[in-house]
Write a structure and sequence with these properties.
- There is one protein chain.
- Residues about 1-15 have low confidence and may be disordered.
- Strands 1, 3, 4, 6, 11, 12, 13 and 15 form an eight-stranded antiparallel sheet that branches. The protein has a five-stranded antiparallel sheet with strand order 2-5-14-7-8, with no helix packed on it. A two-stranded antiparallel sheet has the order 9-10.
- About 40% of the residues are buried.
- By secondary structure, the protein is mainly beta.
- About 5% of the residues lie in helices and about 40% in strands.
Length: about 210
């Protein structure tokens, strides 16, 4: 009971930016009503909006960065989960260990791919440009579960409970180079609007901070 009360108090303390904190440690960071706790990049802000309780991603390139109070939007070891629905020829992505950037493709952090039928052959569940998945693991028009877990240098991406990517960053990883932002560090999350022909819906976005 004491732990339950403590979790409830955490939720209340965060106010409108956080909807729930349960004993399991999961905290909801998208409230389904507006973009409280999030900041849209300036390149094409109309590409990201909230409609009927859903986060709707549609339009030219833009990124939605979590800038809320949970962990001061600076996550190192965590689990992230969301429900995602793509539409035909859509492309999007979920970044982690990134930082707010006013425009352009985020230079910091890793991107987890969201794509079933877009022309890009790199499909949902891959770690973009690092550990790509070339196989279709979800279906346009159907909600699917997207889970990302980072602990130390170890990254696991699951789609509908099935592991698609299991990757450990090593010092000699070919994508690493001096001043490269694409590496394990810490940071926030971002959701990508990729191009004008892409439509993707997100909901039930949660994070859990993992303790040492």
């Amino acid at each position: 009971m004491r732990n339950t009360i403590a979790a409830w108090l955490i939720a209340v303390t965060f106010g409108g930016n956080v909807l729930m904190a349960a004993d399991s440690g999961w905290i909801q960071i998208f409230n389904g009503k507006d973009l409280s706790g999030w900041t849209v990049s300036t390149d094409s802000p109309k590409s990201i909006r909230v409609e009927d309780g859903l986060l709707v991603i549609s339009g030219p390139r833009a990124h939605l960065f979590y800038t809320g109070e949970v962990a001061n939007h600076d996550f190192k070891d965590f689990e992230f989960k969301a429900r995602v629905k793509t539409f035909p020829k859509a492309n999007s992505g979920i970044y982690f260990h990134t930082a707010y950037q006013a425009d352009g493709w985020p230079r910091k952090g890793y991107e987890c791919q969201v794509n079933q039928t877009h022309g890009d052959p790199k499909k949902t569940g891959g770690l973009y440009g690092v550990a790509d998945n070339m196989d279709k693991v979800a279906t346009d028009g159907e909600w699917f579960d997207y889970n990302i877990r980072v602990k130390g240098k170890h990254i696991v991406i699951k789609i509908n409970g099935k592991t698609v990517t299991d990757y450990t960053e090593t010092p000699d990883a070919p994508h690493l180079r001096p001043n490269s932002g694409r590496r394990i560090s810490s940071g926030t999350f971002a959701i990508q609007a990729h191009d004008p022909n892409s439509l993707v819906h997100y909901k039930d976005i949660f994070v859990k901070v993992l303790e040492d």
